[in-house]
Amino acid sequence: MNTFSARDKSQTIAVLTREALQSYQVIDKKLVGNGSVPIKTADVVNDSLLIDKTLLFSTGHVTSSTKDFYIYTLDLDNGNLHKNKRQAFPTTGEVKDSQHFYTLTSEAGLKTTVQQFSKTGKFLKEAVIDAPSVGTQVFEYGDETFVMAGTEDLGYDETYYRGRLHIFDTKNLAYKRYVDLETDDAPYRKNYSSMQVINGVGYCFSDVKRKRHDTTPMEPDNTLLSYEFATGEMKEISLTGTPVKWLSKSSDYLIYVLADEETKSSLRLVNMTTGDEYILPADELIGQSSQIDVINNQYVVVAGKNHLGLYDLLTGTFLDDIKLKKKEDEADMLVKLSYLS
């Protein structure tokens, strides 16, 4: 039975916990629930992806005592929920901008296994990145699949990862090539570990850096790197302040928390299509574990700390706050945001 209301689902935000998928819309500057589907999974929700009218998400954790790992599929038209048990367990890797669902499994930092699933949760193909790496993210662009990963540098006293894009053919998951997000002659080693793709350009932050061939400790960094997929061109942009957290799953906005020299934090939202930038104070709702997105180019939705918060994008004004129904011992990161449009 379809448990969602008949309201227009465009730009609807969904909150995914162990208990249910609850959808919300903004009506008269308030968060209004418009239906839910019970889930009742015993383990943490790792990631979610909307393909057409099917929402896929994975559960399971590397420290799980049950070792039960599943991919759930939820039909948004009729509310039917199915789960498929799988062999691999996920890392913290994210799935973005894709017509397939993926899991990333890193084994002791020695290799990363990439598994591809259909929108029904059916296993399709598997590939292995046979190199010291930790997969953090996977997405599709054109007819290629990109896995954002790091390569271990054990030459110094600190383990260090530099950003590397491993590129596969999406159809057969055959390995094609890789791209390092820095050059060997760059003056600094940097820590690019997560990428967001907007309008054919990938963006990622580096929060620490160290001079090459130098054993001194890492220094704080504040660099935003852009990678243009069509040309392979890379550019570095210096930010004022230090990025604290990579937060966005939006397709239009670059979203991050920035700390200035006085340790005050603010939420920065940049519309990469128009170039418009918005600044919100980082209050108690906008924390390290928050997930943040923009709906209708008007409102900022924040999920975290057992709450769902709403802010006005243009003014930064706080508008509404809903306490989420979760068990007291559940961590904040169990909340996932997804569009139901």
Walk me through this protein's architecture.
There is one protein chain. The protein is mainly β and 341 residues long. The strands form seven sheets. Strands 8-12-13-14-15 form a five-stranded mixed sheet, with no helix packed on it. Strands 16, 17, 18, 19 and 20 form a five-stranded antiparallel sheet that branches. A four-stranded antiparallel sheet has the order 3-2-1-29, with no helix packed on it. The protein is globular, with a radius of gyration of 20 Å. The chain contains no helices and 29 strands. Residues 5-9, 154-159 and 329-335 have low confidence and may be disordered. It has a domain at 95-243: Lipocalin, CATH 2.40.128. Helix content is 0%, strand content 55%. A hairpin with a 5-residue loop joins β23 (265-271) and β24. The two termini are 19 Å apart.
Short description:
The protein is an all-beta fold and about 350 residues long.
Strands side by side in the biggest sheet: 8-12-13-14-15
The helix/strand class is mainly beta
List the uncertain runs: 5-9, 154-159, 329-335
| Number of distinct helices | 0
Protein traits:
341 residues; mainly beta; Lipocalin; five-stranded mixed β-sheet; 29 strands; 0% helix; Quinoprotein_ADH-like_sf
SSE map:
Elements: E1 13-16, E2 20-27, E3 30-38, E4 45-51, E5 54-59, E6 70-75, E7 81-85, E8 94-96, E9 101-107, E10 111-117, E11 123-129, E12 133-141, E13 144-153, E14 160-169, E15 175-180, E16 188-192, E17 196-198, E18 201-211, E19 219-228, E20 234-238, E21 242-246, E22 253-259, E23 265-271, E24 277-281, E25 291-295, E26 299-304, E27 307-312, E28 318-323, E29 336-339
